[in-house]
Design goal:
Blueprint lengths: L1 H23 L16 H11 L11 H18 L6 H17 L4 H12 L20 H6 L10 H18 L4 H9 L6 H13 L33
Amino acid sequence: MMSELRSVWVRGAVVASLAAGLVACPQVAWAGAQAEEPLADSVRTVLSAAIGRSAPALTFADATQKQQCERWAVALEDKLLKRKPDELVRREFLLTACYEARRAGLEPSLVLGLIQVESGFRKYAISSVGARGYMQVMPFWARLIGNGEASSLFHMQSNLRFGCVILRHYLDREKGNLFMALGRYNGSRGRAEYPNMVTAAWRTWKVADAVLTSPPGTQVAQATGVSATAGAGAARPR
């Protein structure tokens, strides 16, 4: 009996150690099991509008919103230095992540946590089943709500836009339940491993959130055909 209990404890310790290691330096893509689900025409229309038909650009609502994201990016540059040593690339990535997250009504630090688990901040990461880029977006999304070009998922801002819009969609479907939304994003709805990993990674990036002081509902970025607010209901089908 003691040997069996010891074996169970060792296996549990190994699993915990592997999970911690994957958060720090993931070698696999976690969104590979994400399922293609039928979308109602109204939902597809809203999501397509949120994505847009052309390459996205940073179009802040005003100077204040841009300055907030710039301060947030500066606050996290040192933390991302080892993963992105080029200063211009690092700054552009962080500024874009802040922009796209807030455009979709998400916390930018949550998006960074998801990216850390999904791709380890590798722009050209690709899973065994074809999930692509920073946020490991499955190619079927480009067909369902994009321009059909899966190669666009390797474009930094396009990938972040798809990932943020998809996560916002799942949050809306799950009525704001982040645990379930993250599980749906990963294709493991109802299981704890992936949401726990993303949440743990998220906490390491929240240090800079204090500079994002816009009150709920403040407009951050304008996208044609979609409500682009910092509130919890952004990009929700209406």
